[in-house]
Automatic annotation (TrEMBL):
InterPro entries per UniProt: BaiN-like (IPR004792), BaiN-like_dom_sf (IPR023166), FAD/NAD-bd_sf (IPR036188), RsdA/BaiN/AoA(So)-like_dom (IPR055178), RsdA/BaiN/AoA(So)_Rossmann (IPR057661)
SUPFAM superfamilies: FAD/NAD(P)-binding domain, HI0933 insert domain-like
Ranges of residues in domain RsdA/BaiN/AoA(So)-like Rossmann fold-like: 8-389
Keyword list, A-Z: FAD, Flavoprotein
Required co-factors: FAD
Protein name: NAD(P)/FAD-dependent oxidoreductase
Domain RsdA/BaiN/AoA(So)-like insert span(s) in chain numbering: 189-336
Organism: Sphingomonas humi
Keyword Flavoprotein: yes
Amino acid sequence: MSAPAPFDAIILGAGGAGLMCAAVAAQRGRKVLVIDHAPDPGRKILISGGGRCNFTNLGAAPDRYLSANPHFARSALARYTAQDFLELVGKHRIAWHEKTLGQLFCDGSAQQIVRMLLDEAAAATIRCDTPVRDVSHNGTRFRVVAGDREVEAPSLVIATGGPSIPKLGATGFAYELAKRFGLRLVEPRPALVPLTLGGEEALFRELSGVATPVEARCGGAAFREAALFTHKGMSGPAILQVSSYWRHGQAVAIDFLPQAASGWLRETKRQRPRARLPAVLGEQLPGRLADTLAERLGIASELGNAPDKALEAAERRLSDWRFEPNGTEGFAKAEVTVGGISTADLSQQTMEARKVPGLFVIGEAVDVTGWLGGYNFQWAWASGVAAGQAL
Ligand code: FDA
């Protein structure tokens, strides 16, 4: 085994947060080593946004993030904004576009973002395909045994992300390290993940492939986007968003007609008493969904023969249809992890552990989770910059 090499900082994880942190620290003249067990850096960036990387969101404010401490992300997000990242993207002449809801994507390929980060971090040493075998701390320096080498430095950055999508190299290693260094954990759960339906509701799985715009509500959050029925349950952006707020035993409420005015069904009865519910719903919803909902509402007759009270009840149910998912599709399908290393043990200015000077935690490993739509990368960049400026 070769002699320990001198570095100012060792960053574990060459994802978005680790690479951004390496770039900032190396440009400040720090001698930085990045270690990753995956064969290449930035694998999640490469597959993100359908290969075009939704690299930030123009609305990336702290209220778009979940954390046990909703204020924790404020400082880092204010000091490194979506505009700051756009400047970097502009400097590297990467063309981009806004798709919807402030979500910014590359015109070309996510590879451009990885290339940009590697160029920015050119002064850092990046070792991929290097499993980390041991990490220890003697009170002043961190020692890492990785691959066939041993390295040490006064600073160590945990940037190994969360356990979502293990086949991309994701692990719960950050949590193991946290425990070793006495940092607390907020229970990690799969987030931005499809929900599964069982029992009576499994019948909705027959609608697999049907998508429609809805308002989905859970845990005090509400999202107006598309929902998609799948062969296991429900997905689509609205469902992925509420999944981050969902806990076992809770219901997810769906408004299938979020644009409809109150009393619309009674009004339809007055104007078209001979119309039937499946046809009326089918004017606003996909046919298969309209048929299933009408069947479950049990209004088979012409609207003119249905009592107003029944139509009012149907309308209420359509705007607040309760599903009780029996689970999620788990970390294998989750875009991110909600929970993680507790922010209570970290400085919100620098991401440094309060009780272990020199130890930093950034990116998805931290208990800060963004909504769908570029928010998670913005947190990776912002927390990486905060630590990179402090190393
Ligand atoms: P990240 O997981 O990116 O990096 C961690 C690194 O640590 C990896 O390179 C991994 O190999 C390495 N590592 C893990 N364990 C290790 C160990 N034991 N030893 C050594 N190295 C180890 N977000 C967004 O804002 N816009 C988007 O478009 C998308 N799209 C998207 C699609 C899909 C399919 C997924 C799974 C996720 C997204 N995301 C997203 C979320 C986004 O990818 C995620 O929030 C960031 O990649 C987190 O960045 P980090 O650097 O913290 O972790």
